[in-house]
From TrEMBL:
Keyword terms, alphabetized: Hydrolase
Domain AB hydrolase-1: 32-140
Protein's name in the database: Pimeloyl-ACP methyl ester carboxylesterase
Pfam families in the record: Abhydrolase_1
């Protein structure tokens, strides 16, 4: 049963492990929706989706460790820490069951979290992420480390604005490499197969930052097989915008998927 007691608007810090996360809870008595950000994105990226859904929903957003302007640094930026942080935020806000929406890296976190916590999950919307595909190579690992090392000089001055995380180049590179390992078919495939709650994909088109050729489309091509194996999972839409623009340009489609899962 969902708790329909009206909750006041709240913004503050939620302690977890060796850090604290900046959290915003819109309150109200609507269905709770928790939004999981892209790798180095912030909760502000969801503003259009939230506005489209409106005040009839309870929107919970947060900035991951060392992301944004207020979330604290940590000794642990692992994927497992990111999954634990979902529990920490929901527990702190007194939410027993929520609908989980994740974009990019957040879609991976969402998929793992809902597969482990079906009793706490209303359903999930995975926005251009959590697609099982073996794309990471040894050469690519080295390339990722090189790119972040070269970009470090540019990112450091932007930390005070919250536009870039307060992490070292090596920490950021390892987080990206971790996604490649998690995306492997033998790793992510079984996770998707064990999801037992209504789940919808919203897929982007074209390239994303750092991708080349038709690499992104090859990754997305793995999703129909996921949906074929698990009847709980469907492809809600494939939109025209690319990975980086999907929250900005196709927020209505994402909101529609959220309504569909809740319904």
């Amino acid at each position: 049963m969902l708790d329909r007691t009206s909750t006041p608007i709240w913004t503050g810090m939620v302690p977890v492990d060796d850090t604290a996360l900046a959290v915003t809870d819109s309150g109200g008595s609507g269905t709770p929706v928790i939004y999981l950000n892209g790798q180095f994105a912030t909760q502000g990226y969801w503003r259009r989706v939230i506005a489209e859904l409106g005040p009839g929903w309870r929107h919970i957003t947060f900035d991951e460790r060392a992301r944004g302007r207020r979330s604290g640094r940590s000794a642990d930026y692992s994927f497992e820490a990111a999954v634990r942080d979902v529990d920490a935020v929901l527990d702190a806000r007194g939410v027993d069951r929520a609908l989980v929406v994740g974009w990019s890296y957040g879609a991976f976190v969402a998929a793992h979290w809902v597969s482990r916590n079906p009793a706490r999950t209303i359903g999930a919307v995975l926005v251009d992420g959590a697609q099982p595909h073996d794309w990471l190579t040894d050469e690519m690992e080295q390339g990722i480390r090189t790119v972040f090392r070269r970009l470090q000089w540019l990112m450091v001055p932007l930390r005070v604005t919250g536009l870039t995380p307060r992490m070292t180049a090596l920490e950021m590179a390892e987080c990206n490499i971790d996604v490649g390992r998690l995306a492997r078919e033998r790793e992510l495939g079984p996770v998707m197969d064990t999801i037992t709650v209504p789940t919808r994909y919203v897929l982007a088109s074209g390239r994303s930052f750092g991708s080349t050729g038709d690499g992104q489309e090859k990754i997305r091509a793995s999703v129909p097989a996921v949906a074929e194996r698990n009847p709980r999972i469907t492809i809600h839409a494939k939109v025209a915008s690319n990975h980086g623009a999907i929250l900005r340009k196709d927020f209505r489609t994402i909101a529609e998927a959220v309504r569909g899962v809740a319904g």
